[in-house]
Write a structure and sequence with these properties.
The complex is a heterodimer of chains A (about 450) and B (about 170). Chain A is an all-alpha fold and about 450 residues long. Chain A has one domain (about 20-130, about 140-425): Up-down Bundle (Formate dehydrogenase/DMSO reductase fold), CATH 1.20.1630.10. Chain A is about 75% helix and about 0% strand. Chain A has 15 helices and no strands. Chain A has helices at about 5-15, 20-50, 65-85, 95-120, 145-175, 180-190, 195-230, 240-270, 275-310, 310-320, 325-340, 345-350, 350-380, 395-415, 425-439. Helices cover about 50% and strands about 15% of the residues of chain B. Chain B has about 170 residues and is α+β, with helices and mostly antiparallel strands. Chain B has two domains: about 10-55 and about 130-170, 2-Layer Sandwich (Alpha-Beta Plaits), CATH 3.30.70; about 60-125, no CATH class. The relative contact order of chain B is 0.28. Chain B has five helices and four strands. Classes of the chains: A mainly alpha (about 450), B alpha+beta (about 170). At the A-B interface, helix 1, helix 5, helix 7 and helix 15 of A face strand 2, helix 2, helix 3 and helix 4 of B.
Chain lengths: ~450, ~170
C-alpha cells in the first residue's frame, strides 16, 4: 500500500463519484421496484390485518423477527471493523471501514423497520415510547422488548453520528475537488472542515471516544436482542449462553456481508490497490474465528440440553436436529461452521470467487440460524398438542424482498454519492507504513 | 505557538507535500520572529501535533458529563415510570435495579455520544462559516499548509523563507 500516493487515493475515490452509467440507474430502478413490492405488501397488511402473514399459534414470531435479528446482526461487524479494530490499531481495517460503517447504519435502519411491521397496527408504536397512555400507564422497562427499543434506537443514533463524524474530513476533500451544485452540497455537509491543527486535535480525541463508546454498545445491543428470547421461558430460548452466542453470530454474519459488498465494490470501482487481497484475507481469517465460536455455541446448546436431563429441553433439541426443520438446521450448521473452515486453506481465502461464494453461504446460513432458533423453539415447546409448524406467506416474502432491496438500494446510492473509502484513514495508513519503513 | 489576528498583519501560507519538511519548518518558525497562525494537514499528523506542542483536547469532559447525565436519566426514567403505576409484574419489585441498569447503560452511551458530539463541535468551532479564509484546497488532499503571520513589510522575507524550505507559497491579506 505504501507505493500509493495521497493524490492517487483521492483520485481513485473521487473518480467513483463521477456520474454513473445507465446500467447503474437500471439496477437502482430494479431495486426500487423491489422496495415498492415490499411497501405494497406492508400497506396491504396494514389494511387487511396481521393475519396475512404466516404467523399463527404457536409460532407468533415469524420472518419479521428473523429479519429483525438478521439485520441487527449484519450491522454488528460494521462497528467491529470501525470501532473495535480502530481501538486495536488494526490498520488493515482502514480500506473497508467506511463501507462497513455505512452497512451498519443501513442495516440497523432496516432492522428497526421490522418491529414496526410486526406490530400490525403500526400507529400504536407510541406504546413503546416513554409516554403514558390514556390510563397513565407507562412502558414496562423490565421487559426485554423495551430494552430493545432503547438499545436499537441508541445504536442507530450512535452509529449514524459515528459514520458522519468519521466522514467529515473526506467530505471536505470532495468539496475541495468539486464544482457547481456538488460543491455547494459538500460545503454544507462538511461543516467548514479545513483540517487545521485545532480541528484535528479535538477530532482525534472525539473519534477515539466514539470508538470506545461504540464498542460496549455493540456488545450490549445484540445481548439485548438475545434477551428478547432468553428471557422467555421457552425451551431452546431460555439459556444463559445466548448473549455471547448472538454477539459472535452477529459479527460472523456481518463479516460475511462485508465480503459480499466489498468484492463487487472493489471490482466495479477499481479499488484493487486500496482494498487489497490481504484485507479480504484478514476478513476471511476473522470469519474462521467467529465461525468456530458459533460452532462451539451450537454444540454447547446441545450439551446443555443433554446435561440438564430436562426432557422438554432434550426433546426441543432432538426435534431441532431431526424434526420438521432439520433441513434449515443442516443449512445452518454446514454454512456457518463447516464451510468457513475452507478459509484455513490459504489459496481459498485469497481467491475472489471462493471468498464471494463462501460469504454468500454464510449469509444464508446465518439467516437460517435465526429461523431455526426463533421458529424451531416456539413450534415445539412444552405441550405436545400445542405443537405446530410455520411457513412464511407471500406477503412476508414480499416484505423480505423489499427489505433486501432497500439495503442494496441505499448502499448503491451511497457508493456513487459519498466517498466509499475513507481517504483520510488510507492516507494515515500510508504515512504509518512509510514511517515504519524509514525506521 | 502563538495565534495572531491583527488585521494589519499579512498571512503567508507555505504548502509542503512532505510531512517531515513541514515539521522542520514549524520548528524553525518557532525560533523566528514570525508567528504560526495555523497548520492545515490532510491527516491527523502526530508529528505536527508534537511540533506545535498541542495540549490534549477537553472533548472528554463533555463526553463524561454526558455519560453521567445519561446514566442517571435512564435510571430515573425507568424508576419514575415504574412508580407512576405500581403494578407488580412477574412478582418482581416495583423498582428492579438490575433491568433498570440496562436502560441506564444504554442512556449512558447515548448521552455520552451526544456530549462527545457537542464537545467536538464547540471545541473545534464547527460549523465554521468562514472556512475558506487562509485556506488552500490542496490541504485536504496531499499538502501540509503552514499559515504564518508577519508585518506587511516582512511578507517577502517570510515567503522567501518558505521557498527556501521547498514550499509553494500563497499570500493572504
Amino acid at each position: 500500500m505504501a507505493e500509493l500516493t495521497y493524490s492517487q487515493i483521492d483520485n481513485t475515490v473521487i473518480e467513483t463519484l463521477q456520474p454513473p452509467p445507465r446500467k447503474y440507474w437500471i439496477v437502482v430502478g430494479l431495486l426500487g421496484i423491489g422496495i415498492l413490492i415490499g411497501a405494497s405488501c406492508w400497506i396491504y397488511q396494514i389494511f387487511t390485518g396481521i393475519g396475512v402473514g404466516g404467523q399463527n399459534h404457536p409460532v407468533a414470531w415469524g420472518t419479521y423477527l428473523i429479519n429483525f435479528v438478521f439485520w441487527v446482526g449484519i450491522a454488528h461487524s460494521g462497528t467491529l471493523i470501525s470501532a473495535i479494530l480502530h481501538l486495536f490499531r488494526a490498520g488493515w481495517r482502514n480500506p473497508i471501514a467506511r463501507a462497513a460503517e455505512t452497512m451498519t447504519v443501513f442495516a440497523v435502519l432496516i432492522a428497526g423497520l421490522f418491529p414496526f411491521i410486526h406490530l400490525g397496527r403500526v400507529w400504536m408504536v407510541y406504546y413503546m415510547l416513554p409516554f403514558p397512555n390514556q390510563r397513565t400507564l407507562w412502558p414496562n422497562f423490565m421487559s426485554p422488548l423495551m430494552f430493545d427499543v432503547v438499545a436499537i434506537s441508541t445504536y442507530l443514533t450512535v452509529s449514524s453520528l459515528f459514520w458522519y463524524t468519521g466522514m467529515l474530513p473526506d467530505l471536505a476533500a470532495v468539496r475541495d475537488r468539486s464544482m457547481g451544485m456538488r460543491k455547494k452540497i459538500f460545503t454544507i455537509i462538511s461543516l467548514g472542515w479545513t483540517g487545521h491543527h485545532e480541528q484535528w486535535r479535538h477530532y482525534t480525541r472525539g473519534y477515539l471516544f466514539f470508538a470506545a463508546l461504540a464498542t460496549p454498545l455493540v456488545i450490549s445491543v445484540h445481548s439485548v436482542v438475545s434477551w428478547d428470547f432468553a428471557l422467555g421461558v421457552i425451551p431452546g430460548w431460555h439459556t444463559t449462553i445466548f448473549a455471547p452466542y448472538f454477539v459472535a453470530g452477529a459479527i460472523h454474519s456481518g463479516l460475511a456481508m462485508v465480503l459480499t459488498l466489498m468484492i463487487p465494490l472493489r471490482m466495479i470501482f477499481n479499488y484493487e490497490k486500496i482494498i487489497t487481497i490481504d484485507v479480504l484475507e484478514n476478513v476471511a481469517k476473522t470469519i474462521i474465528f467467529t465461525g468456530l465460536i458459533v460452532g462451539f455455541a451450537y454444540a454447547t446448546e446441545f450439551f446443555i440440553a443433554w446435561y440438564s436431563h430436562n426432557i422438554v429441553e432434550i426433546e426441543s433439541f432432538r426435534w431441532r436436529a431431526t424434526g420438521t426443520y432439520s433441513l434449515p438446521f443442516m443449512i445452518m450448521v454446514v454454512c456457518n461452521t463447516i464451510v468457513p473452515l475452507l478459509f484455513f486453506i490459504k489459496r481459498i481465502r485469497r481467491t475472489i470467487p471462493w471468498l464471494f461464494g463462501i460469504s454468500i453461504l454464510v449469509n444464508i446460513g446465518m439467516w437460517y440460524e435465526r429461523f431455526v432458533i426463533i421458529i424451531g423453539s416456539v413450534a415445539h415447546d412444552f405441550i405436545p398438542h400445542a405443537w405446530g409448524t410455520y411457513s412464511p406467506s407471500g406477503i412476508e416474502f414480499g416484505i423480505m424482498l423489499g427489505a433486501f432491496c432497500l439495503f442494496f438500494f441505499l448502499f448503491l446510492l451511497f457508493v456513487k454519492h459519498l466517498p466509499s473509502v475513507s481517504m483520510t484513514e488510507m492516507k494515515e495508513s500510508i504515512a504509518k507504513e512509510r514511517q515504519s519503513h524509514d525506521h | 505557538m502563538t495565534t495572531e489576528n491583527t488585521i494589519s498583519h499579512k498571512y503567508v501560507m507555505g504548502l509542503f507535500s512532505d510531512e517531515d519538511k513541514a515539521v522542520s519548518t514549524i520548528h524553525e518558525l518557532q525560533q523566528s520572529a514570525w508567528k504560526i497562525h495555523k497548520v492545515h494537514t490532510p491527516i491527523p499528523s502526530h508529528k505536527v501535533f508534537d511540533a506545535l506542542k498541542l495540549k490534549s483536547s477537553r472533548v472528554g469532559y463533555f463526553t463524561l458529563t454526558g455519560a453521567i447525565l445519561g446514566f442517571f436519566l435512564g435510571l430515573a426514567l425507568a424508576i419514575f415510570t415504574a412508580l407512576r403505576w405500581e403494578l407488580i409484574v412477574q412478582g418482581k419489585p416495583i423498582v428492579s435495579l438490575i433491568p433498570f441498569f440496562i436502560v441506564g447503560f444504554e442512556f449512558t452511551i447515548l448521552f455520552s455520544v451526544f456530549g462527545n458530539v457537542i464537545g467536538l463541535l464547540t471545541q473545534a468551532k464547527l460549523p465554521a462559516f468562514k472556512w475558506a479564509d487562509l485556506y488552500d484546497p490542496r490541504c485536504s488532499g496531499s499538502h501540509f499548509g503552514i499559515v504564518a503571520s508577519c508585518e506587511p513589510e516582512h511578507a517577502g522575507a517570510l515567503s522567501a523563507f518558505f521557498k527556501e524550505k521547498g514550499a509553494e507559497i500563497r499570500t493572504f491579506d
